[in-house]
Design brief:
single chain
């Protein structure tokens, strides 16, 4: 699997205009331009979209290195909004780093900056488990 190609062709990433800048086991960097359609009523980037950006970086920190026999699913996230993402500024840049990667639980932190200013950070917790069979009835 080529992580950069997979990232670039993922529908949600394309919709949001996300770009994978750097990907390693200890750090992921993703950029998102601030487009008018990302702004809420007060003219700043909507918080749910900041959360999606932070979550995407956390996922890409872990998912590409996951053994094919395993899968992951998000079980918790916590965001702190510390500033506003603004139109007219540079791109939003999120950096995700691992806080803990165990055999069943992984926790990552994502920090979002714009023009060198911290605007949000989040903690994302994932359950790691054996891959379940697909298809059939539940």
């Amino acid at each position: 699997m080529d992580p950069a190609a997979t990232f670039a062709t993922t529908p949600c990433n394309r919709l949001l205009g996300l770009r994978l800048v750097h990907r390693a086991a200890d750090r992921v960097v993703v950029e998102q331009p601030v487009r008018p359609e990302l702004l809420q009523e007060e003219g700043v980037v909507q918080g749910g979209l900041l959360t999606a950006l932070a979550d995407t970086a956390a996922v890409w920190l872990l998912w590409p290195d996951l053994d094919p026999s395993r899968q992951m699913t998000g079980i918790d996230c916590s965001m702190q909004f510390l500033g506003a993402g603004r139109a007219g500024g540079g791109p939003l840049v999120v950096t995700a780093t691992p806080l803990r990667i165990g055999s069943t639980i992984a926790v990552a932190e994502s920090r979002i900056e714009q023009d060198g200013r911290l605007i949000a950070k989040g903690t994302f917790t994932f359950l790691l488990r054996a891959r379940r069979a697909t298809g059939g009835t539940s």
